[in-house]
Write a structure and sequence with these properties.
The chain has 15 helices and ten strands. By secondary structure, it is an alpha+beta fold.
Length: 378
């Protein structure tokens, strides 16, 4: 018994290392398989209602056999239904759930297990949730014989830790997937987005914000957000601190808006509290967070080709709309393009008809604040 305990302890630390580093699962499963003299091992998630399996790790299985099992032999596996019903943590030898004669007559054995010399097996359901089960199994060849009692005892010591390590691994993978999706969504925005702590240190910067670096002296370094003038930097960092600290109950200032710099490099900045509980618990975000939204003036974020395509604007009408968004008057546009004021007004009426607005201010707001201006399509 002492030998089993010492062998189990030697494996447990590596299991939790694998939970944090998925690339270590093959090595750890090799070690567990070697400890029970197995010639094959697998760790997988079996989905409910015949939804198939996803393998976390397989050892000593050729990839073609893994693919064949997933696509065909999973439905023929005589052991699967038994292991699906096991209570979490339960370990069973294959011969205790399926009679040897049934085993050797099955298509699963003759066309899948036998060609690979996987004669004997032991398996366990590690965990169960509403989506299915997490299972592990180890196999031996005919010459090696069935798994011994001491092998089962060793697995009984190890498998609870395997279960916890796998659940940690899946939870972290889910959080990383969530974080990837959130970051990808923020990257689609044409408005610059920077997520910071209360000291204005960024932990996420989207592409639009990166593209604005240099305007008004904007710097997005790891130390803190900065602007070209110290007075502007102090004001911006003060807004961020006030917003971030609001999320932990230290202050009531909430969000704030400001304009920094002069044309053509002026920036509009809006700072808002970012509640930590709105983020996934596993995300590497500080306790006090703020979201900083940064945009340039003058329609620089507007994808004019998409605006033209969406509203069926002609090149002349698009040019007119762009000029209005940039702050030009009808007279300015007529002079710039050597047109009569009457012609420009006719173009404007056509733009109004196509966009469904009636005033210049409504047109500018529609273009500047619409989804086409907010979302990247590249």
């Amino acid at each position: 018994m002492a030998d089993i305990e010492s062998r189990a302890l030697g494996l447990v630390g590596d299991l939790y290392d694998a939970a944090l580093d998925a690339q270590r699962w093959p090595q750890v499963m090799d070690q567990v398989a070697a400890a029970v003299s197995a010639n094959g091992a697998m760790l997988r998630r079996a989905h409910l209602a015949g939804g198939g399996v996803n393998y976390i790790c397989t050892r000593d299985y050729d990839e073609c056999w893994v693919k064949a099992y997933r696509e065909h032999f999973y439905k023929l596996d005589p052991y699967q239904r038994h292991y699906d019903l096991l209570p979490p943590g339960g370990i069973r030898r294959g011969e205790s759930v399926v009679e040897q004669r049934e085993h050797e007559r099955s298509e699963w054995y003759n066309d899948f297990a036998k060609p690979q010399d996987k004669m004997y097996l032991v398996g366990s359901t590690l965990a169960r949730d509403c989506n299915g089960t997490i299972q592990t199994g180890f196999q031996r060849g005919r010459r090696s014989g069935p798994f011994r009692d001491e092998d089962i005892k060793l697995l009984e010591r190890i498998l609870p830790h395997v279960a916890r390590a796998v659940q940690m691994h899946l939870r972290l993978a889910e959080a990383m997937h969530y974080e990837t999706l959130v970051c990808a969504a923020l990257d689609r925005l044409r408005v610059g987005v920077v997520l910071t702590d209360s000291a204005a240190r960024p932990f996420f910067v989207n592409r639009a914000a990166e593209a604005l670096q240099g305007r008004c002296g904007l710097k997005l370094g790891p130390a803190a957000l900065e602007l070209g003038k110290p007075v502007d930097t102090g004001r911006l960092q003060g807004m961020i601190a006030a917003a971030a600290l609001t999320t932990i109950g230290d202050g009531l200032d909430g969000d704030g808006e400001a304009r920094f710099g002069a044309e053509p490099d002026a920036l509009n900045v809006w700072v808002a509290p970012l509640a930590r509980e709105r983020l996934a618990p596993e995300l590497a975000a500080p306790a006090a967070c703020a979201a900083v939204f940064i945009s340039e003036r003058g329609g620089g974020n507007v994808p004019w080709q998409r605006v033209a395509a969406s509203y069926h604007l002609t090149p002349a009408e698009t040019r007119l709309a762009r000029g209005l968004v940039e702050g030009l008057s009808i007279k300015d546009l007529a002079e710039r393009h050597a047109l009569s004021v009457h012609t420009v007004r006719s173009q404007l009426r056509a733009v109004f008809e196509k966009t469904g607005v009636r005033r210049q201010a409504e047109l500018v707001a529609l273009i500047n604040n619409g989804l086409l201006a907010a979302v990247r399509f590249d």
